[in-house]
Amino acid sequence: MLDHLEHLALVDFRNVEGVERLQKAIQFADQLHEVDTEGVEPMDSVLEDRCLYLREDDVTEGNCTKELLKNAREKIEEYFVAPPGNIPLPKLEERETFLQRS
Amino acid sequence: MLRASLREVSAALKEGRVTPTELCQRCLSLIKSTSFLNAYVTVAEETALKQAEESEKRYRRGQPLGVLDGIPIAVKDNFNTAGIETTCASNMLKGYISPYNATVVQKLLDQGAVLLGKTNLDEFAMGSGSTDGIFGPVRNPWSYSRQYKEKTPPKSSSENEESDWVITGGSSGGSAAAVSSFTCFAALGSDTGGSTRNPAAHCGVVGLKPTYGLISRHGLIPLVNSMDVPGILTRCVDDAAVVLGSLAGHDPKDATTIQDTFKPFELPNLIDVRKLCIGIPKEYHAPGLSSEILALWSKAADLFKDAGAKVIEVSLPHTCYSIVCYHVLCTAEVASNMARFDGLEYGHRADMNKSTESMYAATRREGFNDVVRGRILSGNYFLLKQNYENYFIKAQKVRRLIANDFVKVFGSGVDILLTPTTLSDAVPYMEFIKEDNRTRSAQDDILTQAANMAGLPAISIPTALSKRGLPVGLQFIGHSFQEKQLLTVAKWFEKQIKFPMIQLEEVKRHDCSVFQHQKSVSFL
């Protein structure tokens, strides 16, 4: 479970405090189960009774490649550069060595 | 001049009693001499002076753009500003320069306002103290007021005095401190669970959280999309109405802003409260509410009663679950929102090139503080397939019950709800940091976040000084999109109570070794 969660969140939290904090957050949230919500519809938005505004599907902005790339640390020509993909995050026990090797 | 309200200084500009450049320079120099407050993260001196110069030209031509022309303002550092760094007080966005202005920032600039700089906050606005950002905590200007010093004599040496300073509340603490210490005439904050009203209460300024959907969120770096609203911090209610009028309205770039046209309004001077029905929600008498605030609250209710308003006790039965519900919805939306920070397109990127995922993980470990990582993690937990129904959907159902509580009370003829904003006055920093962020937020947002759950407009009004000489605020909550009524009632109340002005002492008296360079600079 913790591995899965860490993988989803893409943050390291695997220390005692991190796990403890998560446990406390869950305990706190568990109070919700005291509330009877039988037959209550979940509420997504406070504006649910209004029509959602949709603008015309027209291009209004663009040609800002340069500006958008300005904030990226690694890029080649007009591309953002990412390290090799499709390599899953190693399990905790292999993590240490994996991280050190790079 | 710097202590004047926005409307007063605007009149002074119009009459030529002061020029925009003079005003801007005086604000900038006060920002420098009060920099120990840590209210500003970035001071945009050069662009501010340029904007002031432009404004001056317009005044000289006799064609100012309106009330805001030449008015120095500050903006919380989670609103995008073109050409000025936007950090969210996080390593993740250190050095980030947005290519565009948030709609609210653009609107202020279009009306001639002078942007002095960006104000300090909790990292990504997650907190209630303005203590958890990478630039360090914001100090409450009232810590250095004569009022506080007289009531709370320093324990003995100057060493102790240094630890006596109190927090601003948060997360918009920098904006609240900036308005309170007279370095700007209005500031933008953001309010997801109370982040504008809480620091407003602690810093003795007016803090308005408008109805969800009234003001554009475009360019406000999102925390909880279904609750975030830009907040307004000013010295008085009239000023809040001016700023609201300049910001409200539909934005094609934010689909959650409503399309009804908003008519800017001025508040009447003569206000009759006799036809009003003020509701006092009994659940806001929450555990931990200080007796002092309780007394002020009932005194305020009496004030309305004596003026002929109908004051009744009402019940919002699901209030006590609101903070729990908020916790689940907030962390869930945070988890999904924060997914955008991966190091590729902008912001911090770790030196890890093993794989995309390891680069993401390292970037996020280095970029986010414990609080942000903790919320991402719990949010992901509540969103797990096996927990989704049990926590996330459950919280959304409870949210409806909370919103319905308000609908029922307002449907029964109540115009405005009157509640405290915070449980107590501001605590010293040394005391505040003894508890972790989640616990603190759960306590500090308890009276404010329900308005966000229901999307309602709410305003905190500085009401009185506590026994310790610190500001206490009371909160008014109104019907959706009925800002005019809410602000009118708030203005009436503000007039009755005559909240004292902060008496700031000279900086040199309280500077410590860390701030040696500011010695002998006086406050005004």
Main-sheet strand order of chain A equals 1-2
The CATH architecture category of chain B equals Alpha-Beta Complex
- Order of strands in the sheet with the most strands of chain B? 1-3-2-4-6-5-10-11-9-7-8
Largest interface in this structure: A-B, 58 and 70 residues
In round numbers, the mean pLDDT of chain B is 94
Which structural class is indicated by helix and strand composition of chain B? alpha/beta
Rg of chain A, Cα atoms, Å: 22 Å
Briefly note the CATH topology name of chain B.
Amidase signature (AS) enzymes
So, the CATH homologous superfamily of chain B?
Amidase signature (AS) domain
Strand tally of chain B: 11
Number of strands of chain A: 2
Approximate helicity band of chain A: 25-40%
How far apart, in Å, are the first and last alpha carbons of chain A?
27 Å
Which residues of chain A sit in consecutive blocks of at least 5 with pLDDT less than 50?
Answer: none
In short:
The complex is a heterodimer of chains A (102) and B (524). By secondary structure, chain A is mainly alpha-helical. Helices cover 36% and strands 4% of the residues of chain A.
